[in-house]
Every structure is written in structure tokens, then in C-alpha cells.
Amino acid sequence: MKRVVTALFLVPIAVYSALFAPWWVLFAVVAIVALLCFHEYASITQTFAPLGYVAGILILIAPRQETILPIVLSAIAALCLTLAADDPGKGFARASALALGIVYIFGSWKTGILLHDMNPNWLMFGLMVNWVGDTGAFYVGKNFGKHKLAPSVSPGKSWEGAAASVVTGVAFGMIYLPLAIRGTSLLAAGLLALAANAAGQVGDLAESAIKRCAGVKDSGNLLPGHGGFLDRVDSTMFALPVLYSLLTFLR
Fold it and tell me: Over pLDDT 90: what percentage of the chain?
């Protein structure tokens, strides 16, 4: 029930922000979500969060062609932190985690903004294809899941749930995209949904691996029934860059 209540709160905000809100509202929502995700990531990995916040905002506000600059500068700044570490080995590991987290979180949400600039419906699709898939995976996996997908990383996930995620995600894409994006064929919609859903499922497992290494169950506790923001959008942060890359390549 907590999952449903949380979803009923978040989905209208996502729909309004992606499709109807002024650009600055969308940016504010994306920035807040990205900052919350990075706060949780920094807590899990014990990295220096302030540098990540500054670098992340710069990535989000930078023009598309200039995004590489704050990414490179943040990596250099992160490596400089090893000079102040008592243990160079641990310092380098934390600096690496910091640089990776900046790209992983803020870079992913940057592609969300770029998708919105292409067409707000692309962002909406990128958000919803895995949320719909996650719902299918949760209920099918809970009731019919018998074969573990990745027991060493996420014991609760099953192949049955993964298949349900693909089916529901692709079905959603084949319904939504032809109606929302003029000229999108059923085949293209299905393939884009498949790619985004597959990327999202990998993203979910990747975030689970990070938590497993840190010895924590959830990234946070802000979202009842889901854990933290990073737990809720881990699949989205893999799906958005893949979707943006495919659309950029195909244009």
C-alpha cells in the first residue's frame, strides 16, 4: 500500500513537470531530484558531497555542447582530494566514486533535460517506461517469481519479474509513443521501449550492487515503500541516457 500511495504522489508531479510545467519548473524538479539522489549516493559511498553538488548543478545548467567541461573539471577536482587523504588508497577509491557518481547521477539527468528539449513526450516516455515495467515486475515477481535473476546482487528479483517488466514496458511504449510522437511506428516504439526497459533493469541491478558493497538495504528512507530517491529512479538514470543516445544517433 505504501508503494501505491507514494506512486500516486510522485506520478502527477512527474507528468506535470515533464509535459505541462514551464522549463524552469522542470529544471528545478530535476535539480532537486538529482541533488537528493547524489546526497544518498554520497552517504552510501562516503564521498565528499559538496563538490558533487556544485559540479552537478554546473552540468545541469551547462549548454549541451559545453557539458564535457564541468565533467572533466569535477574529475580533476575529485582526484585532488586524494592529496588530503591520510590513506592514499582509500582516498583514491573515494575520489573515483565521487567522479563516477557525478557523471552517473547528474549526467543521466542532464540527458533527461535534453530529451525534454527534443520533445517533452520523450522525457515522459523515458520516465514512465520503467515505472510501468517496475510495477509489472513487482506484482508478477512477487506472485510467480521462482528463478532468481541475480541472487548475489538482488535476491528478490526474478527472471519472471524481469520478463513482466519487458512486456509491460514495451506494451506501454507501443501505445504511448505512436500517440504522443507523430510519425513513430509501432516497430520503432517497441524497439525503443525494449532498449530503455533493458537499460533500466541493468540500472536497477547496478544500484543494488552499490548498496550491496556498502552493506545497506535502501539508499534512503524518504519514499515510503520504495526507500530513497535513488532506489526509485535507478532504472530511469540508465534508461534516459540510452534513449537519448539512440534518438541522437537515429536523427
Answer: 61
